[in-house]
Amino acid sequence: MNPIFTAKFGGTSLADAAQFRRVADIIRADARRRLVVVSAPGKRYPDDDKITDLLISCQKEQDKAQFEGIFGRVSARFIGIRDELGLGFDIEAELEKIKSDILSGEGYDYAASRGEYLNALLLANFLGAQFIDASELIFFNAEGKLNTKKTYQTIKARLTGCDLAVVPGFYGKGPNGRIKTFPRGGSDITGSVIARGAEAVLYENWTDVSGIMMADPRIIPEARIINVLTYRELRELSYMGANVLHEDAVFPVRELDIPINIRNTNAPEHLGTIITSSTAEPSPYTITGLAGRKNYTVLLVDKAMMNNEIGFARKLLGILEKHRISVEHMPTGIDTISVVFDAQALGEEQWHEILAEIHAELSPDSINVIEDIALIAVVGRDMQNRYGTSGRIMTELGHAGINISLLNQPVSEMTIIVGVHNEELQKTIRVIYDVFAKS
Ligand code: ASP
Questions:
Q1: Rg (CA), the chain
Q2: What are residue 408's DSSP bridge partners?
Q3: Are strands 165-168 and 130-131 parallel, antiparallel or unpaired?
Q4: Which stretch of DSSP H or E encloses residue 348?
Q5: pLDDT at residue 67 in the model
Q6: Residue 281 domain flag
Q7: Within this chain, do residues 196 and 230 fall inside the same structural domain, yes or no?
Q8: Which of 29, 164, 221, 287 lies deepest, with the highest CB count within 10 Å?
Q9: Alpha-carbon distance 265 to 26, whole Å?
Q10: Does one domain contain both 381 and 345?
Q11: Does residue 368 sit in helix, strand or coil?
């Protein structure tokens, strides 16, 4: 491992010249921050434009006058940052080239990625750092997946000797030599890939919050920051809707056990959240955090003596697989199986087909469909060492008059899944948060 940090700065961290100055101070404050990855300028205030959104609109725009108007807004943002920072960099030439490329038919990926490209050029110029284009470091294969071998080898060869390099996030090069982007929010993935390739000791992800909160702050405004959590806990929380970091950003760093540190550009004194493979630090509140998502469907299949019928579950799952349904949970009883999945994309006709197939193949006594279920994941690496956690949850939800439709606790005991009616999602999160984390 190399004693260097990869520091990724998000869109709000680099939204204007004042933010650029903060970022430069952070980078200069620790000489190990040698590999910097940047997003495109984000919003400065709630109804401001994100540069990436503007660039995507430009690429789609058919009307020349409209195009000019939108591209003008992009140009003004970058020229404004350059001027306020007092840089002599010729950003106009870069903007002209991008404009003519988009007008001559360059596609979505190229246009969407140019905010990162320009921001990295400006930050490199401001810091006196080396600019290294992501298209020279990150490679995709013909299936659109990251070519990890080539990418990591190239990053190691090109970046480990750099004193200070700035790399644009969000994109790389496809097998046809053209720019290809990650999914939206993908600069987080770039940061992780760069940290992995350079074998950095830390991946810092600088954003506009001081870490990952125990619960969604829109529901729990006073939610506490989690100091330390494991990759697995993060995965459970982000799958259920907690989104500070792009989900796919965990996998590259996880391979080498490189910790991720979520930090706040606007409050650098705060140590933020550390995400790591394992930690001896107990979570101070029994649970590490909780998150929830709405609109699941539960399919309940009953059949007397089901437990003697070998292959029942496999046949049921086979039918769902045929209809390309991904099953989230499968709590079972002696004569009951329930499967939980997201049925929003299913049409009425497909539903009828599925139910008819279950009747024909499994001859159940009854099938019940329960819709509009919200699932709440209560996550905590320490729950298995403390008894009574699910009991407390059930008791308190009972006192609050919330009906639990489903309760699932895998043997690993790292997560308890509680299913309630959609309308009860927020109240459930509030009750569970208060049980464990209220001061
Ligand atoms: N700028 C891109 C987006 O808005 C990528 C990123 O910021 O991570 O999705």
A1: 25
A2: 417
A3: parallel
A4: helix 348-362
A5: 96
A6: no
A7: yes
A8: 287
A9: 8
A10: yes
A11: strand
**What is the pairing mode between strands 33-38 and 2-9?**
parallel
Of all protein residues, the one whose alpha carbon is nearest to atom 2 of ligand 1 is 185
CA neighbor of 213 nearest in space, from 130, 157, 289, 277: 289
316 in the same domain as 272: no
Burial class of 360 by CB neighbour count within 10 A (0 to 12, 13 to 18, 19+):
exposed
Within the chain, which residues score under 50 in pLDDT? none
Residue nearest to atom 8 of ligand 1 (CA): 185
| Number of compact structural domains in the chain | 2
Q: Tens digits of per-residue pLDDT, 62-108?
A: 999 999 999 999 999 999 999 999 999 999 999 999 999 999 999 99
Predicted local distance difference test score (pLDDT) of residue 307: 76
Residue 248 sits in a domain of what CATH number?
3.40.1160.10
Ligand 1: residue whose CA is nearest its atom 5: 185
C-alpha 40/C-alpha 10 separation (Å) is 8
pLDDT in tens, 7-26: 999 999 999 999 999 999 99
Ligand 1-lining residues (CB < 6 angstroms) = 11, 39-40, 50, 52, 115, 169-170, 184-188
Give 143 Cα–ligand 1 centroid separation in angstroms.
22
Q: Is residue 283 part of a domain?
A: no
Q: Which atom of ligand 1 is nearest to the CA of 186?
A: 8
Give residue 78's domain range. 5-276
Whether 133 and 213 map to the same domain: the answer is: yes
Task: Examine the fold and report which residue of 210, 242, 276 is the final residue of a domain before the chain moves on.
Answer: 276
Task: Give the CATH number of the domain where residue 401 resides.
Answer: 3.30.2130.10
The atom number, within ligand 1, closest to the CA of 53 reads 4
Q: Quick check: is 147 in a domain? A: yes
The answer to whether 227 and 277 are in contact (CB under 8 A) is: no
Mutate which of 48, 50, 77 for ligand 1? The one with the most ligand atoms within 8 Å of its CB, which is: 50
Distance CA 375, CA 291 (A): 8
User: CA torsion angle for 421, 295, 229, 438 (degrees, to 10)?
Assistant: -30
